[in-house]
Write a structure and sequence with these properties.
By secondary structure, the protein is of the alpha/beta class. The chain has nine helices and 14 strands. It has a six-stranded parallel β-sheet with strand order 3-2-1-4-5-6, with helices on both faces. A three-stranded antiparallel β-sheet has the order 7-10-11, covered by helices on one side. A three-stranded antiparallel β-sheet has the order 12-13-14. Helix 1 packs parallel to helix 2. It is globular and about 55 Å long.
């Protein structure tokens, strides 16, 4: 019997995640959106795309959460994007309400599911989803580092004129402006990036990675990235559903690692059918650790402010 993935939110990211999941023949997919007709219309389009890709995985959709019953993984993309003039705290207040309402629908229908969170601000939303669901922390995971790493990977390959297949990029920390790209842990065919590029070129790659989402928004004028985020979801789904034991960055609840406790933050993990199976501790230098912990402090302050409202 095929696995079942439910995607909550039929916007562009959710739709691309569904398409890539069908293309990889990973699981049957359910697409849920409260906007009348949106999920059903996209489901028909996806079904026809699946036929062209010779995928027999089923795709169903609508606004009835009963369709999600018995899901192995639930992907949460529901929420609003950050608007001009909106602080990250404002965004959290709005999207937290949405995510809490989703959790109320999911926990009784798929109590053994792994939750894959995409809604921003990601790290804080993961903490709220874990608390609202009551699920073990290893089954509430944030997608952010995979996307950030893919951006850095593409920039490195472009700069060096090499295949992306040979590039491993390492980005940890907050999924946002305080993310921490790590050039000395990023390699090309096993060679550290710091041995291949000058400090100035590396710094440009780091800055472009941090501003990767904003750069796309600046070009689009309206809207934001969706192809790479949706594909990143599918990459994480593959690691979970195929029990690949992949090492990839994800937002997870730290319990003493990196000197942090009870805070969601992006770090390398081993991921498999049970969710987070191991948190990998990199040997960070003092400056890197300070930057990581500063990002964690920002998330803690945001959550504290939200709790007071």
């Amino acid at each position: 019997m095929r696995k079942k993935v439910s995607i909550i939110g039929a916007g562009q990211v959710g739709t691309i995640a569904a398409l890539q999941t069908l293309a990889a023949k990973l699981a049957d997919v359910v697409l849920i959106d409260l906007m009348d007709g949106l999920a059903k219309g996209k489901t028909l389009d996806l079904q026809q795309a699946a036929a062209l890709m010779q995928s027999d995985c089923a795709i169903t959709g609508g606004n009835d959460y009963d369709l999600t019953t018995g899901s192995d993984v639930v992907v949460i993309t529901a929420g609003i994007p950050r608007q001009p003039g909106m602080s990250r705290a404002d965004l959290l207040a709005t999207n937290a309400r949405i995510v809490k309402s989703v959790m109320a629908e999911i926990i009784t229908r798929s109590p053994e599911a792994i939750l894959l969170m995409v809604t921003n601000p990601l790290d804080a939303i993961c903490a709220i989803a874990q608390k609202a669901s009551g699920f073990p922390a290893q089954r509430v995971i944030g997608m952010g580092g995979v996307l950030d790493g893919a951006r850095m990977q593409s920039f490195i390959a472009q700069e060096l004129g090499v295949s992306v297949k040979d590039v491993q990029a390492c980005v940890i920390g907050v999924h946002g402006e305080q993310m921490l790209p790590l050039p000395r842990f990023s390699t090309v065919a096993g060679v550290p990036l710091t041995e291949l590029l000058s400090p100035d070129k590396i710094q440009r790659i780091v800055e472009r990675t941090v501003n990767g989402g904003a750069e796309i928004v600046a070009h689009l004028k309206t809207g934001s990235a969706f192809l790479a985020p949706g594909t990143s979801v599918a990459e994480m789904l593959k690691g979970i559903l195929l029990d690949e034991k992949r090492i990839m960055p994800a937002a997870v609840c730290l319990q003493g690692e990196y000197g942090l406790r009870d805070i969601y933050l992006g770090v390398p993990v081993r991921i498999g059918s049970q969710g987070i199976e191991e948190i990998i501790q990199l040997r960070l230098d003092a400056d890197e650790l300070a930057q990581l912990q500063a990002g964690a402090q920002a998330i803690s302050q945001m959550l504290a402010q939200f709790a007071m409202e």
